[in-house]
Amino acid sequence: MDAGRFARSKRRSQTTRTDDNAGEGTGQHRQRLAVLIDGDNVSSREVDGLFGVIAMLGDATVRRIYGDWTGANLRGWKSRLADHAIRPMQQFASCPGKNATDGAMIIDAMDLLHRNRLDGFCIVSSDGDFTRLAVRIREEGVDVHGFGDRQTPFSFIAACSSFTRLDRLRPPGNMRWLSATTADAEQTAGRETGLSADAWQQMLVMMEEAVCAGIEEDGWSPLAKVGLWLALHEPAFNPRHFGFAGPGDFADACPAIIVRRCGEGGHLLSVKLVRKKGTTACGEAGHGA
Questions:
Q1: What H or E segment, with its residue span, contains residue 162?
Q2: Contact 66, 91 (CB under 8 A)
Q3: Protein fold of 31-168
Q4: How wide is the angle at C-alpha 88 spanned by C-alphas 166 and 198, nearest 5°?
Q5: Residue 20 confidence (pLDDT) above 50
């Protein structure tokens, strides 16, 4: 990445603020979010990717996970709580066959909603029982971002402002298609924008999948197709939250992406991934890997 691209990236990061007055004079605003995790229903393996995506949406000012911590089923979560400053909420499984965790999450969500201090909720569960909760929160004009696996009932997905599949998220280190030099450059680019490493990587992962989905015979992917794929499959992807004008502006800041401009005035953009030798056009860490 040349010095000019880093400078542009730096200027963009300076226009993005994360305090309560974020967006004054720039039109940018960082949403204050409550993250409520159904510990009985979600694996700890996706936690890094989860908070990477949430960082794209706003600031997670409330982070809670619910479950019976006296049992063994939450053992994987215990070692990850401090990594992401998640507050464990104890809920005893007092009635066999009844999910007490759901009830506790719903009660807390409504309490938080009526405090009027949040811009959105992230409900992390594949349980359709949260459908009515999502509908109720959105009736108050508050966004609900859902996260769950491929078995999540459509009713819950439809009730959310956006929905992200947890099984599509990738843990750090699963970017084998990048050369060591490009990976180092990407880390520097992420720091320049003020994004966390997890958030920058998840944005790059989403871009990689979109580029692969839109690739044409000449090996390039029209940016219009990339943007459409992102809108349909990755609604959490919003570079504008961080001062980028759109996917093209974000791609221009990524050392792992080449941008080609064609047409009058260079308005027709196509993109291509910079891959290390030995990986195919959408290969090793891409689709089907």
A1: strand 162-165
A2: yes
A3: Rossmann fold (3.40.50)
A4: 40
A5: no
